[in-house]
TrEMBL record:
Family: Belongs to the NDK family.
Source organism: Capitella teleta
Secretion signal, residue range per the UniProt entry: none
Record localization: Cell projection, Cilium
Residue positions binding ATP: 10, 56, 84, 93, 104, 114
Protein name according to UniProt: Nucleoside diphosphate kinase homolog 5
Catalytic residues of the enzyme: 117 (pros-phosphohistidine intermediate)
Domain of life: Eukaryota
GO MF, one example: hydrolase activity
Any single GO CC term annotated in Swiss-Prot or TrEMBL for this entry: cilium
Key words of the record: Cell projection, Developmental protein, Hydrolase
């Protein structure tokens, strides 16, 4: 069924945003909403709160608030898993070895500055879309049937 997911083009990949958006559209996604935003450290902490306490959390927050990001609400059949496949593994080294066509292999730098983000589940997708698009009046698209 058709569902939504949240994509983020991270600070180091924003310079490739046009190319990345072309790949997104050529991969069958619809861009429902798009926003360029420079997160404060507090907003980045809130977005990544599930990683609070991990060793990489402080540097992740610093990185994600170091410059503008582009948040996109994407829709297509099985958007969540398709977007994660297109994005590739978290580690850019692994992405380059095992998924050379993935967006992280193409536009990421390392484990942290990995170019892109994708929601990892239906629950996080709904929460993450609302985080960036709180005024959206769009009803949840996915109706598991
Ligand atoms: P993302 O998919 O946005 O979700 C959490 C982010 O934390 C991840 O991409 C990376 O940017 C970062 N991250 C995950 N694991 C590590 C790690 N081991 N070291 C540094 N950053 C990490």
């Amino acid at each position: 069924y058709v569902e939504r997911t949240l994509a983020i083009i991270k600070p180091d990949a924003v310079k490739h945003a046009e190319e990345i958006e072309d790949i997104i559209l050529n991969s069958g996604f619809t861009i429902l909403q798009k926003r360029r935003v420079h997160l404060t450290p507090e907003q980045a902490s809130e977005f990544y709160v599930e990683h609070y306490g991990k060793l990489f959390f402080p540097s992740l927050v610093a990185y994600m608030s170091s410059g503008p990001v582009i948040a996109l609400a994407l829709a297509r059949e099985n958007a969540i898993s398709h977007w994660r496949m297109l994005v590739g593994p978290t580690s850019v080294t692994e992405a380059k070895e095992t998924h050379p066509d993935s967006l992280r292999a193409l536009y990421g730098t390392d484990q942290q500055r990995n170019g892109l983000h994708g929601s990892d589940s239906y629950t996080s997708a709904e929460w993450e879309v609302r985080f960036f698009f709180p005024d959206s009046i769009v009803e949840p698209i996915a109706v598991g049937q």
